[in-house]
Predict the 3D structure of the following.
Amino acid sequence: MTSLRNVYAEKALSQIPRLLSAQDRNRFSPTYGCMNREYWLCRATDFPSSIAQFGTHALALVYAHEMPGNPYYGHPKILEWALAGMEYWTRIQHRDGSFDEFYPNERGWAGPTGFLLYVMCDTFRRLQPQIPAVLQEQVMKAAHQAALFLARTDESGVLANHHAMAVLPLVEAYMLLGDKKLEAAFKQKLDIFFHYCRDEGWCLEYDGADPGYLSATISFMAKTRRHYEDERFLPQLRKWVEFSSYFVYPNGHYGGTIGSRQTLHFYPHGYELLAQEIPLAAAVAERMLQGLRDGALVPPEIQGERYFVYRIPEFLLAYLDYGPRPDPLPPLPYERHPFQIFFPEAQILVRKEAASYTLVNAAKGGVVKHFPLPGGQLKVNNCGLLGILDNGVLFTSQWIDEHHEVHLSENEITIAGRCHKIPAKVFTPWKFILFRLAVLLLGWHEKSAYYLKGSIRKLLMLGNRPLPVRFKRRIRWKEEELEILTRIWLEGSIHVSGLQVGDEFPARYVPQSRYFQPQELDVRGYVLTPEDLMQLNRHRTLSVVERYVEGEPVSRFSVGG
C-alpha cells in the first residue's frame, strides 16, 4: 500500500512543468509572478484570472517537502517563483478584498477569494522563514482584506462546498492574523454551512446532492478541523463519508452525471486526514487511489488551465497526510451483501444485488448507472432524454425538478415529469462587447457585482424551464436483467427534430464537468431514426426500451408506439 501512496506525488509532480510554463518568470516583466498564461503571454484575455495563482500553493509544497521523484525540493528558483506568485496575488486584489476569476470586476466570494485566501495562508505558513519582511507585510495585509470580504459577504445560489471554503480560509486567516473579528466570522459562517447539510449525509449543491463536490466539502472541513474542533464535525464527517462511498464504483470511477452538478472529480485529502478515525474513509481513499493509478479518475493532465491547479496541491497534501490503512479495510457498498437503500431527500436509489450494482437519481429524471459484478464495468449509463425541437430549443429529462412524480416498489422505480429547456448560450462578438461594458459599468460596485453574478448563475445553471414535453421512465429489475422503459409525450403543436435516449450526456453548465472518461466507450444510447421521429411527431407519443442482460456485451434497444 505504501508504494500506492506515491501515485499522489507522481500525478502532481508531473504537472509542475505545466504549472511553471503558465507563470511569467521574467523578473523585470510588469506581470512577473502571474500564472495566467492566456493573459501575460497569449494576450487572449483582458484580465488575469486570479485563480491561476492557486498554483503558488503547489510550488510551496514541492519546495518545502521531500517526496519521491521531487527535483524541486529546496530549490532556490522554486522558492523565488512561489514568492513571485504570492506577490502578484496581492497586486490584483480589489480594494474591497475580493478577486476576479471568470471576468473583470467579478468580485467572487469563496471562489476565487476564499480559495486563494486559504492557499496563501497555507503557503505563508510553509514558507514564512524565507519570505522577505516587506512581502510578509503585503501578504498579511491582503489576507486580512480578503478575510474581511469573505466575512461580510455571501453569494447567490447554494453551493455548500463554497460555504465550507468560506469557513476554512477564515480559520486559516484567524490563525495567521489573530483578529478576533475573524474568529467570530468563521463561527458564524460555520453555522450557515451546517444549515445546508442534510441528515442523509450530503450537502446541498444548487438543488441536490453531488458526490464530486461532497468530496471537496469533506476535504475542506477535515482541513478546518485541524485548527478548530466543533462537536458537529466528526458525526457529520462520518455521514458524509458513508454517503459518498455509495458513489465509489466497481470500475474505480466516481460520481459523474448521477450528481446534481455531474462532477467527476474526487478530492482525496480529507479522506486521508480521516483514515485513522473513520475506517470507511480509508477504504474510499484506497479505492480512489487505485482508480487514479488506473486512469479511472479525472487526472490533472486533461483538466483545463483554470482547474488543474486545484488537483496538484490536493494530491500533494494527500501524499503528505497519507493515513495508515486498517487491516482489513471495511467493504465499500458495492462489495457488501445485497441491499437496497433509497435516500428520499436526495431522491437517489442504490441497489446492490449478488451480480450487479445500480444507482438511480430520480431527482434528475431517472439517471441510471449499472455495473455487473464481479467484473464491475459500466454497462448501462442511461442519462434519460436529450433532444432538440424544430425551433432549435434543446431539451432533456435530466433536470432536477421537485414536481417529478416518483414511485418505488420492491423491484421497480418510476419517474414521471416534464422535460426542461437546456440553456445553450454562447458569446457572439457583440454580446461579448455588451457583457464587458456591463461588468465595467456595474462591477465596480460590490452589490452590483453580486447581483450580476447571481443573474449569470441563474441564466446558465439554475431555474426550471419546463416544456410541453412529458416523460415517464420505469427502471425494473428482473432476474439477470435490467429494463429501462422511457415514454415521451408531445403536447400542443411542438415537433421534435432529433432525440437520443440513454448514453452519457451532462445537461447543466458546470465548469468542472464534462471530462472524457474511457468508460464512455463501453456504453451506448439510442438515437431515433427519421422514421422514429416521424412516428413520434405524428402520434405524439413513443416509447424506447433499453434491456441489459447480465453477461451480454452491450444493451439492446427497441422502439414502440
In short: The longest strand covers residues 466-478. The first helix runs from residue 2 to 13. The chain has a mean pLDDT of 94. DSSP finds 17 helices and 17 strands in the chain.
